[in-house]
Amino acid sequence: MIWLDTIVQGILLGGLYALFATGLSLVFGIMRLVNLAHGDMIVLAAYLILVLVMTLGLSPWIAVLIAAPVMFALGWLLQRVVLNRVLGPDILPPLLVTFGLSIAIQNALLEGFSADSRRIPNPELEGASMALGPINVGVMPMLTFASAIVVIVILNRVIYATPLGRSFRATSDDPVTAGLMGVEPMKVFAVATGLAMVVVTIAALYLGTRANFDPAIGPARLIYAFQAVIIGGLGSLWGTLAGGIIIGVAQTLGAAVNPEWQILSGHIAFLVVLLIRPRGLFPRAYD
Amino acid sequence: MMLTLDTVSKSFGALTVTDGVSLSVPKGEALGIIGPNGAGKSTLFNLITGNLMVSAGRIELMGRDVTRMPAMKRVRMGVGRSFQIPQPFEGLTVFENLLTAARFGGAASHDRAVHDCAEILRRTGMLARANQLAGDLSLLDRKRLELARALATGPELLLLDEIAGGLTEGECRTLVDTIREIHAAGTTIIWIEHVLHALTSVVERLAVLDFGRLIGVGAPDEIMASREVREIYLGIEV
């Protein structure tokens, strides 16, 4: 029963990793941009929610509704003003710019909030659990996993059944031809980054309510996100969920054997998948 | 006037690929462009669509200066084009390719776009392929999709770039019939083509490009009988 519990906890943890990764996957899938500041954007969104909760006395569930459009606007502006200028055949400029952005965000947060670790208060659900057959699972991990599924279902719906999604896919296929069909790739990229920031805000809600965070933890979230995206297959959102689950289960199993092995087990699982399926489990064509 | 090119030039470094081309195309005309490989025909299309910006000269579309206008805005003004090497959105179905062009290029409402795209698929013989991924299409179907997608933008000026190349005689005849229909409906057409019998059966005038220069414009019979054209384009010593 302990093993079953461990695996279930790992699967639910995978939901959080999938939320970390989905925005990254969306942006990469559409504009082939690897955003090295993605983890820091999650932390930034967590601080934004924290500020809204602490200053306005809001519930974190209400605060996220305010933070999401703010983060959308921030992502849109970031893409329009900064990232669109460095996108091109050379992948190095956007990597350098987002790396610099990562450092800038970390230092700005450090300046504004100090290095103390913080947590978004969520007294109603913090310790709540429910019986799931023979095991008990936390309500927050369940909500995290459910949110990951809802986010992926909605994004897939947007991508495959709306004009906006068709413009995403057309631009992803060939931005020059898309331009000649009336699609404006730079606007499409800005909307995609805005959407990714909305997902980042949802991920930040669960990151900040389930665990402590500080300005320096962004890069580690980025690594989990990367691993989930690569295991799942670049650009595949359901694959990203599968990737998150694999890392989550590997981490909880590793921790069950020896608590020091938790993070290492996740990395080993990532390497094993890379060795067996270098293109990931579900390359984009199958999404 | 649908299109006016005023001493349009394009250079890449020291290489001039379009050299002072001046040309006017009245509304409703079908103009053919011929010339040897490397004459700058596709570059001229890229300049008209805004895919490339001119190095010098001026381009007017329906009386409006569009010289510095980006490609997506020219599409919305009514410039549709097909590519010499088909460039469908491979991850989209045939119908989605058209819908994207109709919604963004033609600025049509959803219902209107769906109706128009279905009609275009029927006219271009692609209805049976509507739900097939464009990346899985044969060369002929890719060419048809090129034409269909260009039509979906609702063009007033349609630029066709070697659309008949690589087709069988029967396929070519079907294509020519479709292009005639489009032209008869009032669409202005500029057609680059090496399949001369197909081209001359549709167009009212022929323009000849050589080394980026416009060396002649006139009725197809006149142009094909011209000594200079026969020497330069057909390589025939006369």
From TrEMBL, chain A:
One Pfam match: BPD_transp_2
Subcellular location: Cell membrane
GO-annotated cellular components: plasma membrane
Coiled-coil ranges from the UniProt annotation: none
InterPro entries assigned to the protein according to its UniProt record, in alphabetical order: ABC_transp_permease (IPR001851), BCAA_transport_permease (IPR052157)
Its membrane topology: Multi-pass membrane protein
Keyword terms of this UniProt record: Amino-acid transport, Cell membrane, Membrane, Transmembrane, Transmembrane helix, Transport
Domain of life (superkingdom): Bacteria
Chain ranges passing through the membrane: 6-30, 42-71, 91-110, 131-155, 188-209, 221-249, 261-277
Residues of the signal peptide: none
GO MF term list: transmembrane transporter activity
Gene Ontology BP, a term: amino acid transport
CDD domains (UniProt xref): TM_PBP1_LivH_like
Family under the similarity heading: Belongs to the binding-protein-dependent transport system permease family. LivHM subfamily.
Name of protein: Branched-chain amino acid ABC transporter permease
Organism of provenance: Pararhodobacter marinus
TrEMBL record, chain B:
GO biological process, alphabetically ordered: D-alanine transmembrane transport; L-alanine transport; L-isoleucine import across plasma membrane; L-valine import across plasma membrane
Pfam name, any one: ABC_tran
Keywords of the record: ATP-binding, Nucleotide-binding, Transport
UniProt cross-references to CDD domains, sorted A to Z: ABC_Mj1267_LivG_branched
SMART domains (alphabetical): AAA (SM00382)
Record keyword Cell inner membrane present: no
GO MF terms held by the record: ATP binding; ATP hydrolysis activity; L-isoleucine transmembrane transporter activity; L-phenylalanine transmembrane transporter activity; L-valine transmembrane transporter activity
InterPro entries listed in its UniProt record: AAA+_ATPase, ABC_AA/LPS_Transport, ABC_transporter-like_ATP-bd, P-loop_NTPase
GO cellular component: plasma membrane
SUPFAM superfamilies given in the database record: P-loop containing nucleoside triphosphate hydrolases
Official protein name in the record: ABC transporter ATP-binding protein
